[in-house]
Design goal:
about 270 residues; alpha/beta; eight-stranded mixed β-sheet; 10 helices
């Protein structure tokens, strides 16, 4: 369940090219729908102080800012400067939003600084999850709410004419994070960190056609960029995998499904 020490750091993974690829994925209708569902579960209110951890390109940050209004505030933090640059540009006209470069294991904020916090696809990248969760508990006010979204890629169902190659691509992709199966024990870890009333929801992503405006097709460049050159996978292997996906679409056989696991808790 641990990532090989040779795996790149989160900072190295989110260079400018990958950050732009991720932004494009986050702009797809699939992820926009997921974002709406997550925000409905979080239920931000006007005037609240909100922390967006791993804010990425700032799409959720901007939505939170609209929800809390001019009387509230949103701080977006990320460990990757290219992501923060995109987010700052996106939210430049929203004065209640600020951004900062920060590590989730050492947040530069006072105790009980925020009424609620949200993190999407963040903690699976963190080696010291338990320390990071305790740090999250520290900066959220007692009675506040947190929401964490993480993915277990073993929940992925991705149709392919070459199942062995498909499995190798996904197994290799799992190596980009220290905790690829984090949702399996995140509830317990949150409770140990001091969070209460932890509940879990599932937000599925389902793609039934080869469409560039879907999550799975958008992620192919991200996954392929990481997997090429690892575990014997060559650039040609990745090109063949992508070609196979296009062919599956042409044959009306494209199928992708993945579960997002949403953890909502009180501080």
């Amino acid at each position: 369940m641990t990532q090989p020490s040779s795996a790149p750091s989160a900072q190295d993974q989110f260079d400018e090219l990958t950050s732009r690829r991720i932004e494009a994925v986050y702009l797809t209708p699939d992820v926009a729908e997921q974002r709406d569902k997550v925000l409905a579960l979080l239920d931000p209110q006007a005037g609240q102080r909100t922390l967006d951890i791993g804010c990425g390109p700032g799409l959720t940050t901007l939505a939170l800012a609209h929800a809390v209004g001019a009387g509230g505030s949103v701080l977006g933090v990320d460990i990757a400067e290219p992501m923060l640059a995109i987010a700052r540009q996106r939210c430049a006209a929203t004065p209640q939003v600020e951004f900062a470069l920060a590590d989730v294991t050492a947040l530069p904020h006072a105790d009980a600084s925020f009424d609620m916090a949200l993190a999407t696809q963040v903690y699976e990248y963190v080696e010291d999850i338990d320390g990071a969760l305790r740090e999250l508990a520290r900066v959220v006010t007692p009675g506040g709410r947190v929401l964490l979204v993480d993915t277990d890629w073993e929940s992925a169902v991705w149709a392919s004419s070459d199942n062995a190659r498909m499995r190798l691509v996904l197994d290799t992709w799992n190596e980009h994070i220290p905790h690829p199966q984090l949702p399996r024990d995140l509830k317990r870890r949150m409770e140990l960190a001091g969070f209460k009333s932890v509940r879990v929801e599932i937000v599925p992503i389902l793609n039934l056609a080869y469409d560039p405006q879907t999550y799975s097709i958008g992620m192919m460049d991200v996954i392929g960029g990481f997997a090429a050159g690892r575990n014997g996978l060559t650039e040609q292997d990745i090109a063949d995998w992508k070609a196979d996906m296009r062919l599956m679409g042409q044959r009306d056989g494209y199928f992708f499904s993945l579960n997002r696991y949403v953890f909502i808790a009180d501080r």
